[in-house]
Specification:
Helix content is 29%, strand content 27%. With 273 residues, it is of the alpha/beta class. The protein folds into 2 domains: 4-150 and 236-272, FAD/NAD(P)-binding domain (3-Layer(bba) Sandwich); 153-231, Alpha-Beta Plaits (2-Layer Sandwich). The strands form 2 sheets. Strands 1, 2, 3, 4, 5, 6 and 12 form a 7-stranded mixed sheet that branches. Helix 3 (60-69) packs across helix 4 (81-93).
């Protein structure tokens, strides 16, 4: 593997993939890292499938991705996460971006000689790669937090799909933050996770899902698709001077990242990369 790239994009979220491909198209060498083995960020990993999209405002790579996934959407603005995986994978394979998945950043530092680099934890051990610039494209501001930037939790959620219910009594469950009926009768549901404790969030999520499963039984429905984890929304990382050369999505687009407006963020990233 090359030890130095023009750009490293941390996080294969929708904006992250678009940023990586756009910069690679200009001739720069680009490394795209991701913790999971597929692209898409919260849309594909956490089933954050409800996206507000103004197609007339999209162009270029972002528009092509939307046009590829929209025909397979489930209706009511709910995207198919598998279609998103395929579309983003196709975009990456058609570019010169170097993907490095199943790695987690553990540090972002600038060496004494001035080289900006990221330390990555992989199955093979620890890897350090340097770059002229790094973009933190994680939706959790992970790389910025490693540099000491603070981030405050707004809310936690679990997204899931359920089979078509016999009746809608389940909608009265107080755990439900939102529920969207799909074209085929299924529902995309968001459950609120109350805890803000970093260590017990998974426990709370599992307990919430178990309680919701009992509610679904009464409406003749069941869980159909579960996410890989909990979606945590943060206020943007702030309060620390990031190393020169490290940018966040919010810094590039000039506003907080909205979890239901990732296509808008991707378009702005594409225009400014």
């Amino acid at each position: 593997m090359i030890a130095h790239y023009d750009h490293i994009v941390i996080g294969a979220s929708l904006p992250g993939v678009i940023a990586a491909v756009k910069r690679a198209a200009s001739g720069d060498s680009v490394l795209l890292t991701n913790a999971c083995g597929f692209p898409g960020g919260s849309i594909t990993e956490l089933l954050n499938c409800a996206q507000r999209v103004d197609r007339s405002a999209l162009s270029g790579i972002t528009a092509s991705v939307f046009d590829a996934v929209f025909p397979d959407s489930f209706g009511a603005g709910i995207l198919n996460p598998e279609s998103m995986k395929y579309a983003l994978q196709h975009v990456l394979e058609s570019s010169s971006v170097t993907p490095l998945f199943h790695v987690v950043p553990t540090a972002v530092t600038r060496d004494a000689d001035g080289a900006l680099g990221v330390q990555l934890l992989a199955k093979e051990g620890s890897i350090r790669i340097t770059a002229s610039g790094i973009l933190d494209a994680t939706e959790e501001h992970h790389a910025a937090a490693l540099c000491g930037a603070s981030r405050s939790i707004v809310q936690r959620s679990v997204h899931l799909f359920i089979t078509p219910p016999v009746d809608d009594r389940f909608l009265t469950d107080p755990l439900i933050r939102s529920a969207v009926r799909l074209d085929d009768g299924r529902y995309w549901v968001t459950l609120a996770i109350a805890t803000k404790d970093e260590y017990f969030q998974e426990n709370e999520a599992h307990e919430a899902i178990d309680r919701f499963r009992l509610t679904l039984d009464k409406s003749g429905s069941r869980l159909q698709m579960l996410p890989l984890g909990i979606r945590t929304d943060y206020h943007g990382a702030a309060g620390a001077a990031l190393p020169e050369g490290l940018l966040t999505i919010e810094k590039v687009i000039g506003r907080p990242l909205q979890p239901d407006a990732l296509f808008t963020a991707a378009q702005q990233i594409e225009e400014r990369s």
